[in-house]
Amino acid sequence: MQKTAILLGATGLTGSLVLEQLISDKNYVTIKVFSRKPSGVSHPKVKEYIGDLFKLDVFKEDMTGDEVYICIGTTKKKTPDHELYRKIDLGIPTQVAEICKANGVSTLAVVSAIGANANSAVPYNKIKGEMENAVIKVNIAQTYILRPSFIAGNRKEHRTGEKIGVAIFKFLRFLIPEKYRAVDASDIATKMIELCNSNIPSKIIESNDI
User: Fold this and answer.
1) Residue 127 belongs to what H/E stretch?
2) How large is the C-alpha radius of gyration of the chain?
3) Tell me: the pLDDT tens digits for 157-207?
4) Domains observed in the chain
5) To the nearest 10°, the Cα dihedral for 24, 191, 142, 181?
């Protein structure tokens, strides 16, 4: 198989691991990375498209391939402005899905979050739920939504609160229901690629199944 993958979020923890695994996978000959800044990865398989992700129409002609991996996301601390937060966590994934659908991309995998629910009173969960609904509505043939709990791994940025939370979750792992246990980012990346190379119908994958 000589496949082309589209990737958004390659500079983040999960996205960087998806990129790493796609490079190592012999099924992929080209990996198109769309980002606002370079990933820092140099490899013959990797083609980078750098620009404003709020203006994705600029990339429309280049956003072609077999699969799209969406690992875009922010935090309230990094993006306190609610409207900007929505544009990143809801707007970008939705528009990417729409462009990929128009370009004939048949498979999509996106990272959401545990508790995602468009009717939630929790803003983070509500936006993730709205994102899921919007992506599903686009109706790409194989759509996989992953809902991890705390994501563990070595991040480039310093997130003290999150690191403490993950540490506590790991320490008290035996007391925590499986669904709510921390998930290694590498496992999320592996699951996304595994799903995109399967023939199973579209589905939502809860944290304990990652």
Assistant:
1) helix 123-138
2) 16
3) 555 555 666 566 565 555 565 676 789 999 999 999 999 999 899 999 999
4) 3-209 (3.40.50.720)
5) -150
Model confidence over 148-159: pLDDT tens digits? 998 887 755 555
Nearest to residue 39, comparing CAs of 23, 28, 56?
23
Report CA torsion sign: 82, 127, 102, 200.
positive
Quick one: tokens of 49? 């498209």
Burial of 62 (0-12, 13-18, 19+ CB in 10 A): middle
Sheet of 203-206: strand order equals 46-50, 28-35, 3-8, 67-70, 107-111, 142-147, 203-206
| Contact between 33 and 10 (Cβ < 8 Å) | yes
Q: Please give the backbone phi and psi of residue 33, each rounded to the nearest 5 degrees, phi first.
A: -105, 120
Q: How many CB atoms neighbour CB 154 within 10 A? A: 7
The backbone torsions φ and ψ at residue 195, rounded to the nearest 5 degrees and listed phi first, read -65, -45
Q: Give the whole-angstrom CA distance, residue 44 versus residue 32.
A: 11
pLDDT digits (tens, 9 = 90+) for 48-69: 999 999 999 999 999 999 999 9
